[in-house]
Amino acid sequence: MPFRLLPLLYCLAVLTNCNAQQEQTPTEQSSAYTFKSPSRDGTGKYYLGREISHVMGHLAADWLERPEREQEENVSQAIENMGIQPDEEIADIGAGSGYYTFRMARKAPRGKVFAVDIQPEMLDIMARQIEREDIENVELIRGSETSPMLEANSVDLVTMVDVYHELSHPREIMQNIVSALKPGGRFVLLEYRMEDSSVPIKRLHKLSEEQAVREMKSVGLELRENLDNLPWQHCMVFVKE
Fold first, then answer.
1. What is the domain extent for residue 70?
2. Which residues form the Methyltransferase domain (predicted)?
């Protein structure tokens, strides 16, 4: 399949674990979303005016590990943007094959990276690398459709790399993430820029800064900065309001 037709593939999940989110009533949960006839690449489920995209699965895992990814996306710079400290506890939501996970783990030798994914096949890929390379500071977590299964006040940094636009329950996952962040913690969101028509990614797999701010504000996160030093992606750093 041509690259221009491929969005990044990460599949993930969202719903509350009892330690990380207050329970919502069915009315509160359902009122966050509306439903219409789906567009070509969408699910027909809308959140704050944005149609949620379809998820791509584990069969394209090799594409995540393509050799040209560093050049195309400047992954090294993206990780530098995160400001990772050597002893930080980090959650990589929608970790996929672990392309970011293991690179972040090297930046936090005295900390830990929780690699969260909903697909057991992705977790298996990462487990094999952990065993092969004897990696001690990566812990695998299988999420569900509505929870990344993080404990409250447990992480300094949460990252999502081209995952958020695919979440079936973005409000629930983000409420959970806000609860999981320690005081002073940060949420780093990487998404392809909707504002840039030259970015060769399908529309529903992009996100504008304005829409991201709207959605994060609804769960109590404030944009601290949007670093514009990546070829195609926003790198937005959010903190608790």
1. 3-240
2. 87-211
